[in-house]
């Protein structure tokens, strides 16, 4: 993990491998952003014109490297684009700072130390820069490079990957100020858990089975004072968890239901988080077509996000009780697998006719939602890579929000926007429920094809306890990024929805659940 320090040194005196400054896109060309005054002075006030000569415009995601003048203690200046110059009396948004820091940190892979002199007007700015840098520096290299390459990893020599930027020195912050110290501590705890979730999502499914995931959760619980209960296949059978067992029965790797309980002595509210944890999804007997299997290790992203959010809440000592439910199974085709046409009896007692075994996430979530409801939390939020339909509707970077309470849905949407996660509120049209009527069981796991993401949400709603406020986040689009990295978002697992869940927990602790 990349280290973070709040430095009192000035940009002109700090020693580092590189100094990162911001440049915005102005009406007449690039504009040097606040924080880079000393650097601009070292260029005789001509840094903007030098950058423009080199082709820089200040556009978001743009990186320009140039040699530093001899008056500075760093060999390289890295100018990173912040996007459009804010209007007069307005500041750069937290998200623009977060993304710029992420781009810079990724570009500095292999470096030991970099100083970040981006605009900092308040502790919130420092926190955003820290988050962006620590998330942008992330890389998943556990399965890359041999022993020889590992020796050259720091510099990138050989065939092995470069190691992440080792240290971020954040300039313009105030190390002795309580607000800045708290911002740095929050950024470290949050990003470490997001990056841990990314690791889980990126881990190959032959290594991350339901049992292995449960072991990771158990170890983290011991480390951070979280009570962990693991229900194995025998306990699931005894408890009547037909949804989770039905999905997992075709695999040699049996399913698990993991409960993580973080409690606080001063908590007045309880928040339950439920995550879909399909550690590999072949589609089961309803096998996925060629080209759709290769990334299905990511189908446990919802459980990874819930796990990370609970641990982050514990590390931050939030005055709220947070319970996480990880519904873990591997969906495989075999002689013992659930067949289309089979009927499963869920934990709630409701029966489900399985029309498509690739609509398995809603089955494991149904059991977990019912179990979570039994403890009567103040609110339940489930997170899942649930439907391709949601990707069709909202694209690869935006998750959908459905809920049985409009105010709660709006609150989560506003929180997501605040923390920089793209989301959109979606309806639960009652007329779509009829499409899941079954002549054999209480409900079918499939309904109308059009609006399939909303149909899935309506299915889940059936398993939420009466009178409990509930929301469903379908993160199928943003959970796993297959394109080139951008901002602080890497290729592979992203840690989608974690920042939203943690901020929701903080709001709940403050009495603002909604």
Total strand count, please?
20
- Give the percentage of residues in beta strands: 15-25%
- Strand order within the widest sheet? 8-9-11-10-14-18-15-16
Distance, first to last CA: 35 Å
* Number of helical segments with 4 or more residues: 15
Helix content: 25-40%
Q: How does the major sheet shape up?
A: 8 strands, mixed
Rg, rounded, reads 24 Å
Task: Supply the helix-strand structural class.
Answer: alpha/beta
Overall, the morphology is elongated
Poorly predicted ranges: none
- Write down the overall mean pLDDT: 95
What would you note in describing this structure?
With 514 residues, this protein is α/β, with parallel strands linked by helices. Helix content is 33%, strand content 21%. The chain has helices at residues 37-42, 47-53, 94-107, 123-136, 147-151, 178-202, 210-224, 233-239, 242-248, 301-316, 361-373, 388-394, 406-419, 452-461, 498-509; strands spanning 3-6, 18-26, 29-32, 63-67, 76-84, 113-117, 167-170, 227-231, 256-262, 270-281, 321-331, 343-345, 351-353, 379-384, 399-403, 423-425, 443-444, 469-474, 480-481, 492-493. Strands 8-9-11-10-14-18-15-16 form an 8-stranded mixed beta sheet, with helices on both faces. A hairpin with a 5-residue loop joins strand 12 and strand 13. The model has no long low-confidence stretch (mean pLDDT 95).
């Amino acid at each position: 993990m990349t280290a973070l320090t709040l430095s009192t040194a000035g940009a002109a005196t700090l020693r580092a491998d590189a100094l990162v400054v911001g440049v915005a896109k102005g009406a007449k060309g690039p504009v040097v952003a606040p924080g880079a005054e000393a650097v601009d002075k070292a260029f005789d006030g001509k840094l903007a014109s030098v950058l423009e000569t080199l082709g820089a415009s200040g556009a978001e995601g743009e990186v320009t490297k140039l040699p530093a003048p001899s008056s500075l203690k760093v060999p390289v200046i890295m100018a990173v684009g912040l996007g459009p110059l804010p209007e007069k009396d307005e500041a750069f948004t937290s998200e623009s700072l977060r993304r710029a820091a992420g781009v810079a940190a990724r570009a500095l892979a292999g470096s030991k130390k970099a100083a970040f002199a981006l605009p900092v007007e308040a502790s919130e700015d420092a926190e955003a820069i820290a988050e962006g840098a620590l998330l942008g520096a992330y890389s998943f290299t556990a399965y890359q490079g041999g022993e020889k390459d590992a020796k050259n990893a720091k510099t990138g020599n050989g065939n092995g990957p470069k190691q992440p930027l080792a240290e971020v020195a954040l300039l313009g912050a105030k190390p002795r100020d309580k607000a800045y110290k708290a911002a740095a501590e929050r950024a470290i705890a949050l990003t470490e858990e997001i990056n841990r979730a990314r690791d889980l999502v990126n881990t190959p499914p032959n290594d991350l089975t339901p049992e292995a995931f449960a072991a990771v959760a158990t170890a983290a619980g011991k480390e951070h004072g979280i009570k962990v209960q693991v229900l194995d296949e025998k306990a699931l059978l005894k408890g009547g968890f037909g949804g989770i067992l039905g999905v997992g029965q075709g695999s040699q790797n049996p399913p698990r239901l993991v409960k993580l309980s973080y409690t606080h002595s001063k908590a007045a509210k309880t928040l339950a988080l439920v995550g879909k944890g399909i550690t590999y999804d072949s589609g089961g007997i309803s096998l996925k077509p060629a080209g759709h299997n290769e990334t299905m290790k990511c189908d446990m992203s919802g459980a990874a996000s819930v796990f990370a959010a609970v641990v982050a809440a514990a590390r931050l000592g939030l005055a709220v009780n947070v319970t996480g439910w990880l519904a873990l199974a591997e969906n495989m085709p075999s002689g013992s697998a659930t067949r289309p046409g089979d009927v499963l009896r869920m934990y709630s007692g409701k029966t489900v006719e399985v029309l498509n075994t690739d609509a398995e996430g809603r089955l494991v979530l149904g059991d977990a939602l019912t179990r979570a409801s039994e403890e009567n939390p103040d609110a339940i939020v489930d997170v899942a890579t649930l439907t391709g339909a949601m990707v069709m509707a909202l694209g690869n970077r935006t998750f959908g929000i459905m809920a049985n309470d409009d105010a709660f849905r709006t609150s989560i949407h506003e929180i997501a926007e605040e923390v920089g996660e793209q989301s959109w509120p979606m309806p639960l049209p009652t007329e779509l429920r009829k499409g899941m009527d079954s002549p054999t069981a209480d409900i079918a796991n499939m309904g109308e094809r059009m609006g399939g993401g909303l149909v899935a949400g309506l299915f889940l709603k059936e398993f939420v306890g009466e009178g409990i406020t509930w929301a469903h986040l379908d993160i199928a689009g943003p959970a796993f990024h297959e394109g080139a990295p951008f901002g602080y978002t890497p290729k592979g697992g992203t840690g989608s929805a974690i920042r939203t869940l943690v901020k929701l927990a903080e709001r709940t602790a403050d009495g603002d659940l909604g």
